[in-house]
Design a protein that fits this description.
There is one protein chain. The protein has 323 residues and is of the alpha/beta class. It has a single domain (12-322), classed as TIM Barrel (Alpha-Beta Barrel), CATH 3.20.20.70. The protein has helices at 43-55, 74-82, 98-107, 122-129, 134-144, 167-177, 196-199, 204-213, 245-249, 275-279, 283-296; strands spanning 12-16, 60-64, 88-93, 112-116, 151-158, 180-185, 215-220, 226-231, 234-239, 253-256, 261-263, 271-273, 317-318, 321-322. The strands form 2 sheets. The protein has a 12-stranded mixed sheet with strand order 7-8-9-6-5-4-3-2-1-10-11-12. It has a two-stranded antiparallel ribbon with strand order 13-14. The chain is globular, with a radius of gyration of 19 Å. The termini are far apart. It catalyses: GTP + AH2 + S-adenosyl-L-methionine = (8S)-3',8-cyclo-7,8-dihydroguanosine 5'-triphosphate + 5'-deoxyadenosine + L-methionine + A + H(+).
Length: 323
């Protein structure tokens, strides 16, 4: 296991498998990489990288994008990672294509799903995602709930004045299926940067509500010291990353970009280019590059830091409603 200079182990690898998406979410950070990159790792490339990472003690892999289910070979990608025998293999998706791929993904080793569901109101969902697809996604959620995945999480980015009043409704929806609910703080990254001041919510009101209506179970020490709550039988995870030294102190993750670079942090550079070693299947060279990347890891937010929330406020209209 690799430990960085701040005592944090590297346990998890987020794998960005493509740089395209069929949604246009107003807050998308695109995993800190560019859109429409010219080079894309093959399924075999990804399998090679994950096998080396596993040798270094990384045993938890999450597939993301873009929208990963836009890759025609996404089942092969899952199969390549599954072959190395990871402790955990999950995938984050907007849910649009789950009716096509979910069964094959499960049969090839995928065990967990994260499904983005930022509103249960059709107009709000369409505004947030840029796609009028709520009904289709809800049908797909109902479908995959019966397939036997070990765990399904609903990802909700909290947007002030837009969807934060839906949290009790989201909890009831998650309870219906036995899902985990993950509430995520808006990040001033990518598309989220210009709308940050308008929609940023520090989650304090939500946390107060959770304390009143549920109970604190503890924190996820293996992943950003995330607080865990239980409300009406539903586990609720809080992803409060912005200007949060506690979150950074518990970081155990790096990101593999879709063109073969290793990002030490969503918010910052540097990145280490792994492509020369991937292309030539240089196992020793790749291992050394990963060890070097781990040595560059450092918290983005530290005690005493402060965030700048001064951005232009924007009004938007959804039907007859103005936000």
């Amino acid at each position: 296991m690799l430990i960085d200079n701040y005592g944090r182990p590297w346990l998890k690898l987020r794998i960005v498998v493509n740089s395209v998406c069929n949604y246009r979410c107003i807050f998308c950070h695109f995993e800190g990489q560019g859109k429409f990159l010219s080079r894309e790792l093959s399924a075999e490339d990804i399998g090679f990288v994950t096998s080396v990472a596993k040798d270094l003690g990384v045993d938890d892999f999450k597939i993301t994008g873009g929208e990963p289910l836009l890759r025609k070979d996404i089942v092969k990608v899952v199969d390549e990672i599954s072959r190395i025998g990871p402790k955990d293999l999950s995938l984050t998706t907007n849910g649009y294509f789950l009716d096509i791929y979910a069964e094959d993904l499960l049969s090839h080793g995928l065990r967990r799903l994260n499904i983005s569901l930022h509103s249960l109101d059709r107009r709000k969902y369409s505004f947030i995602t840029g796609v009028d697809a709520l009904n289709k996604v809800l049908e797909n959620i109902d479908y995959v709930s019966k397939l036997g995945f070990r765990q399904i999480k609903l990802n909700v980015v909290a947007l002030r004045g837009l969807n934060t009043n839906e949290i009790p409704m989201m909890i009831r929806f998650a309870a219906k299926y036995g899902f985990v609910l993950q509430l995520i703080e808006l990040m001033p990254m990518g598309e989220g940067f210009p709308v940050f001041a308008r929609y940023y919510d520090d989650l304090s009101d939500i946390i107060n509500w959770l304390n009143k209506h549920g109970k604190l179970l503890g924190t996820r020490k293996d992943l950003h010291n995330r607080p865990l709550y239980e409300v009406d039988g539903v586990r609720v995870e809080i992803v409060k990353n912005y200007n949060n030294p506690t979150f950074c102190a518990g970081c155990t993750t790096m990101r593999l970009t879709s063109d073969g670079k290793l990002k030490t942090c969503l918010y910052k550079e540097p990145v280490v280019d792994l492509w020369p070693y991937i292309r030539t299947r240089d196992r020793e060279g790749l291992m050394k590059a990963m060890i070097y990347a781990n040595s560059l890891r450092k918290p983005n937010f530290v005690e005493g830091s402060s965030g700048d929330l001064s951005r232009i406020r924007i009004k938007v209209r959804i039907g007859n409603l103005v936000y």
